[in-house]
Design a protein that fits this description.
The complex is a heterodimer of chains A (275) and B (298). Chain A folds into two domains: 5-56, no CATH class; 58-269, MetI-like (MetI-like fold, Orthogonal Bundle). Helix content of chain A is 75%, strand content 0%. Chain A has 14 helices and no strands. Chain A has helices at 11-34, 39-43, 56-62, 66-97, 103-115, 119-132, 138-162, 166-174, 179-190, 192-208, 211-216, 224-234, 239-259, 261-269. The longest helix of chain A has 32 residues, at 66-97. Chain B is mainly alpha-helical and 298 residues long. Chain B has a single domain (68-297), classed as MetI-like (MetI-like fold), CATH 1.10.3720.10. Chain B has helices spanning 2-40, 60-64, 69-100, 105-114, 116-119, 122-133, 139-146, 161-185, 190-198, 203-229, 234-240, 252-261, 266-297. In chain B, helix 6 (122-133) runs parallel beside helix 11 and helix 9 runs antiparallel to helix 10 (203-229). The two termini of chain B are 42 Å apart. The chains are: A mainly alpha (275), B mainly alpha (298). At the A-B interface, helix 1, helix 4, helix 5, helix 6 and helix 7 of A face helix 1, helix 3, helix 4, helix 5 and helix 6 of B. Chain B: Keywords: Cell membrane, Membrane, Transmembrane, Transmembrane helix, Transport. Chain B: It comes from Bradyrhizobium centrolobii. Chain B: Belongs to the binding-protein-dependent transport system permease family. Chain B: One of its GO terms (cellular component) is plasma membrane.
Amino acid sequence: MSEHSGRRTTPGRLVAIVVTLLILLSPFLWLLQMSFKSNDQILQFPPPPIFTPTLENYISLWHSAFSASFVNSLLSASLSTALALLFGVPAAYALSRWAGRGKHGLSFAILVTRMAPPIAFTIPFFLFYRWIGLLDTITGLVLVYTSFNLPLVIWMMQPFFDTVPISLEEAALVDGARTRTVFTKIVLPMVTPGIAATAILCFLYAWNDFFFALILTRTNARTAPVAVVNFMNYEGWEWGKIAAGGSLVMAPVLIFSLAVRRYLVSGLTAGAVKG
Amino acid sequence: MSQGGIDGERRRFIAFALTPSLIVLFAVAVLPAIYLVVTSLTPFQLTTPGSATDFSAPLRNYGLLPGDPRFVNSLLVQAKLSFWGVLFQVLLGMLLALLLNVQSRFVEFARTFFLIPMVLPPIVVAVIWKLIYTPDISPLNYSAQLLNFTMPALTSSVDFALTAIIIADTWEWLPFTFLMVLAALQTIPEEYSEAALVDGANKLQIFWYVTLPFITPILVISGMFRLIDSVKAFPLIFLLTGGGPGTVTEVTNYYAYLLAFDTNEIGYSSAVTVVMLLLVAGVSLGLVWMGRRREAMA
């Protein structure tokens, strides 16, 4: 067959792809292997090619304040995801079904809120939180994360609602069903995969945040990314623990990313490419 | 008529579904923006009571900006970081996309792993590069020692610090341009390159005359997306160089952060942030304008 002549996989190209992948991922793998080494092994020169992996870094992390920060991250990321979905999913449906003139402007405004550098929001949020006493609280973090996840939900869910045929809804409406019923009983079940994918992406964005957590938390609500950096400042240069902390912070991200592989592209490029 | 009833009921539902989100977006995006602009008109410092509402010289902060060498320098540093970062990301992303633009189940599976740097938490990316750039434990220094060659301390050297940031930033965001270009490559009809092949064109000519014109718009658009986001390279700078040595890697975003949360100059920092926001908004508008033109052409 001639149809894929230009794109056939040759063994040479496969080797090139694998080599490129290894080079690209080597910094990441370096962190991973370091997390299983004792501090002595880390400082050994030349680095031993084969070593007995140890879990001591992970175990000592688990018994330190790091585990509390891990829980803080989990709480703030999941609560903000739930809130953003609660507000954003109906709004995305409304935008998808609304043929009004303001629709494009609104979608654009939503995208713009995602493009602004976080510092622009941090200063007002910091001052406001300081005033009403929300600094260093999970509630404060949840509010901030909801604010930047809401546009993402609206942006990502719209195409999913667009794929639900309107004729299906019209039939139910003609039969006398209310729009609310049509939405919850007919439309929502059809977009469940989209909601799942969007939820995971929201979770990841909140989980990955460093900047807001750095400024809006101190000790009580400190999240895992900030805690990792704190090792460097307060616990000396314990490279093994730092590497293990980094590995723990990225673990949920890697697992979830694999789970939503298919939707990852549209979520990460958030409107940069259509469809 | 019942049709009107249905329409009315539908309209009410749409308003009901949309309003809470609009209120939230207004509260968390529009109000802070207004507050930011208002604060930028004051000499606000947390330690000076009454300074938050002192509008006696509203444009004072903005007047100070052009004469502030650190601010002017920070714009230059940001320009350098953005230019080289975006250039490398677009070029390498394109090369990677060309390499992986094949139909094979294995390659499709492998693609996911190429995305890892982009999905990692940015602070973990910074930690990864911290491990690589710290002389005592750096694999670069091990290799250099084996080759009897002394590695300069990358992140604390005036000459290499910004390069070190650019390398890490390129590593982190290369997958983004790769994804976008790959998506564009996959829409090129197979017949084009086949026709060129029949006409005796070699691979380089096919790339130059068939592939490149096809993907140029997406190269520009993904480059602009990266340009807008390059302002956000905070964790890398925070962890690797802290803006230093001196102000060599102090981008505007970082300078605004230091002003507000280190030296307590909240009013002035807000003015810096407003200028930065305007610049980002300008680029964003350019992007939208290009998107429109592209849609019109299609």
